[in-house]
Amino acid sequence: MESKILIVEDERDIVDLLRYNLREAGFEVDYVRNGADALQRALENSPDLILLDLMLPEVDGLIVCRLLKNDPRTKNIPIVMLTAKVEEGDRVAGLELGADDYITKPFSPREVVLRVSAVLRRIQVGKQATAEINQIQTHGLTIDLDKHQVLIESGAIDLTATEFKLIKLFASSPGRVYTRDILMDVIWGQEYYGIDRTVDTHVSRLRRKLGDFGKQIETVHGVGYRFKEQG
Ligand code: CA
């Protein structure tokens, strides 16, 4: 079945461009022009993914993102934000509210199709992963969740508990950007008050232990980290 994409954007030209290209790529496309309609349509139509512009009239895109992610009926719908190149703070805020990815304007239609497909694929893989497994395998890396062991080509890698949590998180959703705050929460819990450098220190140690493979963990400037997508 075709995946349903809901576009939330008030600029007509951008809607037309996105709609045309996503339909060409085989998606079913619907759109609304403001935040209130977005919430309603998300409930009525349960889209597979929402492309959410942050610059909306009346209700700001970040608020829409928060409302969608706080409602149990819509919180599992992946959100890809559209942001202007200058709005780095908004991107970070959006990711922290639970958005799955972002695309900066101006974008190419091809880029949008690729990112949307990647997020949908990732969600699918994530579903399968939670259903079955005790192993994550990606780009020549194997994580054995029962044995708490990480294997790469050159053999088993000895990791601390924190490093293991990090690699497990990264490898379970390649391509997803994690901000430093999200990593702090996931790894150390909400109650931990550390400084940004804590995350950087653990990530660089993990990278070093992984050797050449460490390059798979990319720094996303001003935002955080992500595990390279396969292919
Ligand atoms: Ca807009």
Molecular structure report:
The protein has helices at 12-24, 35-45, 61-70, 88-96, 109-132, 161-172, 180-188, 196-210, and strands at 4-8, 28-32, 49-53, 79-84, 101-105, 135-138, 141-144, 149-152, 155-157, 177-179, 217-220, 224-227. By secondary structure, it is α/β, with parallel strands linked by helices. Helix content is 45%, strand content 23%. It binds calcium ion. Calcium ion binds at residues 9-11, 53, 55-56.
Structural domains: how many: 2
Question: In the CATH hierarchy, what is the superfamily of the largest domain?
Answer: Response regulator
What is the fold named in CATH at topology level of the largest domain?
Rossmann fold
Query: How much of the polypeptide forms β-strand, as a percent range?
Result: 15-25%
The rounded Rg comes to: 18 Å
CATH class annotation of the largest domain:
Alpha Beta
Q: Note the main sheet.
A: 5 strands, parallel
Spatial strand sequence of the major β-sheet: 2-1-3-4-5
In the CATH hierarchy, the architecture of the largest domain is 3-Layer(aba) Sandwich
Which residues form runs of ≥5 with pLDDT under 50? Answer: none
Give the averaged pLDDT, no decimals.
87
Please report the number of helical segments: 8
Secondary structure class reads: alpha/beta
Q: Tell me the span between the first and last alpha carbons.
A: 24 Å
Number of beta-strand segments: 12
Give the ligands present: calcium ion
Q: Strand-and-helix sequence, N→C?
A: EHEHEHEHEHEEEEHEHHEE
The residue fraction in helices comes out at: 40-55%
